[in-house]
Amino acid sequence: MSITSRVKKVLTGNHATAYAVMQARVDVIPAYPITPQTTIVEKLDEFIENGLLDASMIRVESEHSAMAAAIGASAAGARTYTATSSHGLLYMYENLWWAANARLPIVATFVTRAIGPPWNIWSDHQDIFTLRDSGWILFMAKNAQEAYDLTLQAFKIAENPNIRLPVGIGYDGFYISHTSEPVEMLAQDEVDAFLPDKRSIKPLLDPSNPYTIGNLPEASFNFLIRKNMWGSMESSIDYIKKVGYEYYLLTGRNYGDLVDKYRCEDADTIFVSIGAMANEGMVAVDRLRSKGHKVGHMALRLLRPYPEDEVIDSIGNAERIIVMSRAVSMGKGGILFTDLIDVVYRNRLNVDVYDIVVGLAGVEVVDNDFIKVYNDVLDGIFDKRETIFLMGGKYV
Amino acid sequence: MSKVLYPVSKPGAGAVGKTSTWRWQRPVINLDKCTKCGLCWLYCPEPAFEINEEGYPVVKYDWCKGCGICYNECPVNAIEMVNEE
């Protein structure tokens, strides 16, 4: 049954994503299974078999081939989707960059999962951050509803003729991919009206006007390709906000804010985190607020392009920021921290920033971890120049 | 917003600029030996050969990289590779 009116269903993050992809009427899905992403493409296969989605599912022999097929399909003008995780993402890696430089509006879901060895299927954000510098627009959802909503918005953003960048939606493996929660879905006609006409996608491959893609140019052309991507990335922020606001008018769910601020207004201390653990951060804020502490939380919904203006606005007059990263740049620091510290320096913000790495390899992060770090920051036990590793409530 | 720059090009001579600067030897055709078979034109990996009105091959030295494939393929040894100065 296609969805003829708005409906709320209890769905896993993966199935919520699959519904959004179905409603976006994608044409081509090249896919290779990897935990914890697999149930997205399994569900899409089911939709195709049941006649709910008129798309080609290309069963490839590896993730590298999945993205290669996605590049071909998207270059031909097809609305193209795939999903992967962790080692699958790394196996896809070369072609993920290719898709970005070729300005192909592919949408992909990256269900975050730790990278081995040792073998591990639980969530951390190391895999999605390998795409940080590639030219993919990267979102991070913190629940199944956001996974659904951002997937629909992703197609609209990617296909804008002035942006034309691939868009990835990340969310935590298992915490979001495999747990169920109520998700409100739009009616099919609402989705059809929200998304652009698929036939408006400019094909790079056109038999009547043949071009080669990615041929050897002069080096300066490569330079300009990257510079041009930079410009599109920077200017995409306004359009991403516009699409988010349009979605807000449609659904009442606010995506015009690229930073999900929680009780930041008068806060002297602000936590920063992304994905599933942001929910724990907000619980911690409520608990600390109930004891009179002025704390807030900001969850970055958009990782690239970095929503610098909104981050500055969210920081406001805060005295300290505690950044909880679930991914680390080896030899440098928590990745959310290194992103933020650059904003603090360039804008000469007078604020102390603490670099905490948590939850690697799926080690549980709970509200108590946020509260413990907050108390220890107030007690002054940290050297601000250090990267602190907190595992299961203990510093390691 | 600025126009998107795509990494695409029309296939043809000069899409990468003049590739002749890579060359250290140039093919020189001895027209007295040439049988107009066209194999040099066919095997050239670049569009660096053209066939003139009389049917003889002509090297376009702006695009010739000096790879020597034509020299290797010529069945009557009509092509000589001459060192560039």
SSE topology sketch:
The complex is a heterodimer of chains A (396) and B (85).
Chain A: E1 7-12, H1 13-23, E2 28-31, H2 38-49, E3 56-59, H3 63-75, E4 81-84, H4 86-91, H5 93-101, E5 107-112, H6 126-129, E6 137-140, H7 144-159, E7 167-172, E8 180-185, H8 188-194, E9 212-213, H9 219-251, E10 259-262, E11 269-273, H10 277-290, E12 295-300, E13 302-304, H11 308-315, E14 320-325, E15 328-329, E16 333-334, H12 335-346, E17 352-358, H13 367-378, E18 387-391, E19 394-395
Parallel strand pairs in A: 2-3, 4-5, 5-7, 6-7, 11-12, 11-14, 14-17, 17-18
Antiparallel strand pairs in A: 1-8, 6-13, 10-12, 15-16, 18-19
Helix pairs in contact in A: 1-2, 1-7, 3-5, 7-9, 10-13
Chain B: E1 8-9, E2 25-29, H1 39-43, E3 49-51, E4 57-59, H2 69-73, E5 79-83
Overview of the structural elements:
The complex is a heterodimer of chains A (396) and B (85). Chain A is α/β, with parallel strands linked by helices and 396 residues long. Helix content of chain A is 40%, strand content 21%. In chain A, the strands form five sheets. A seven-stranded mixed β-sheet of chain A has the order 10-12-11-14-17-18-19, with helices on both faces. In chain A, a hairpin with a 3-residue loop joins strand 15 and strand 16. In chain A, helix 7 (144-159) packs across helix 9 (219-251). The radius of gyration of chain A is 21 Å and the shape is globular. Chain A starts with 6 loop residues before the first strand and ends with a strand. Chain B is α+β, with helices and mostly antiparallel strands. In chain B, a hairpin with a 5-residue loop joins strand 3 and strand 4 (57-59). Chain B has two helices and five strands. In chain B, the strands form two sheets. Chain B has a two-stranded antiparallel ribbon with strand order 2-5. In chain B, strands 3-4 form a two-stranded antiparallel sheet. The A-B interface holds A 101-103, 161-164, 204, 210-218, 221-222, 224-225, 228, 231-232, 235, 239 and B 1-11, 15-17. Strand 9 of chain A pairs antiparallel with strand 1 of chain B, so a sheet runs across the interface.
